[in-house]
What we know:
This protein is an alpha+beta fold. It contains two helices and three strands. The relative contact order is 0.16.
Amino acid sequence: MTPPAPASSPTRESTSTAAGPREPSAEERIWSSRKRRLARSAVRAALVVPGILSADCTIMGTPERPSLMFAYVLRPEANAPRIVEHIENAVVGDLELLLGAPFVARQVEFSVGRG
């Protein structure tokens, strides 16, 4: 007679305790910190471009499947086509190189500020 198969035990991630949600792992904390640093760097890189008034960047997802939300505001007199190309190629492209993975989703938007 064969013994019954052992019951699967819940993983640490799926275990809910009365104390609240689980603490993030070291890898999750490192990824979270890296996402914030890279997003701040992308904002700084955008703000040195003449014609950009403000910028905001958020990187989400996992290290293997990152996604991006990037928005910036142009001065009314700015050369929009040149700036859009620069942001897409230099800023967003550099982020992908630094992350070592392409964005699986990217939302890059710009608006024009008031004069």
